[in-house]
Structures are given as structure tokens and as C-alpha cells.
Design a protein that fits this description.
Its cofactor is [2Fe-2S] cluster. This protein is about 15% helix and about 20% strand. The protein has helices at about 25-30, 60, 65-70; strands spanning about 1-5, 15-20, 50-55, 80-85, 100. The structure holds FE2/S2 (inorganic) cluster.
């Protein structure tokens, strides 16, 4: 258990409680966080769950897979700390994680 904070492009924040093993995409969609659609169901093939990890949490979230990187690089707001929320699994080590949503997902 823990919390993750999603911040929309306009600054609106949503603090969401998680159970270990849920993906950030699942957390966002089940808690009504706008801007994360998860159209492919978590297969890293739609790019509708793009989040940008807070600089302080880059190491904790680990590296992207090649598949994830390929999808993110097609995004108009690709950043070095961009991730697909479906590929990030909530766990105790990510308690307190902060991510923000890119402008194009408003
Ligand atoms: S839900 Fe489709 S890429 Fe994450």
C-alpha cells in the first residue's frame, strides 16, 4: 500500500492509494484521473498512458524496455523521464511517487 500523485498539465493533482502490483495506468483509470486512457489495456502499444516521472523518482522507476521506448519516442512530448504508466507497477519502493501528465493528454 502507498500513494502515487498524478498531476494534470493544468496543475490539478490526484493522490491515489495503491495495492502492490497494480500498474499506474490501472490506478489512474480506476480512480478517474483524466488524461490516461489505457486504450490497449496495458500492452505498451497505444501510448495513451504517457506520464512524466518527477526528477527525484527517475532512479526508483528503473529503465524503460526497448518496446516502451519505441512507443514513447513517437509521442509529441517525449522527455527523458517519460514512461508508459502501464509499464510501471506500484510497489513499496514507489510509495510517494509523483508523475505529471503531458499537455497533449488533457
Ligand atoms: S495502456 Fe497502452 S501503452 Fe499503456
Amino acid at each position: 500500500m502507498g500513494t502515487i500523485t498524478f498531476t494534470e498539465y493544468d496543475g490539478t493533482s490526484h493522490e491515489v492509494e495503491f495495492a502492490d502490483g497494480e500498474s499506474l495506468m490501472e490506478l489512474a483509470t480506476s480512480n478517474g484521473v483524466p488524461g490516461i486512457d489505457g486504450d490497449c489495456g496495458g500492452e505498451a502499444s497505444c501510448g495513451t498512458c504517457h506520464v512524466i516521472v518527477d526528477d527525484a523518482w527517475i532512479a526508483a522507476t528503473g529503465p524503460r524496455s526497448d518496446e516502451e521506448s519505441q512507443m514513447i519516442e513517437m509521442s509529441p512530448e517525449c522527455a527523458p523521464n517519460s514512461r508508459l504508466a502501464c509499464q510501471l507497477k506500484a510497489c513499496a519502493g514507489l510509495d510517494g511517487l509523483k508523475v505529471r501528465l503531458p499537455e497533449f493528454q488533457m
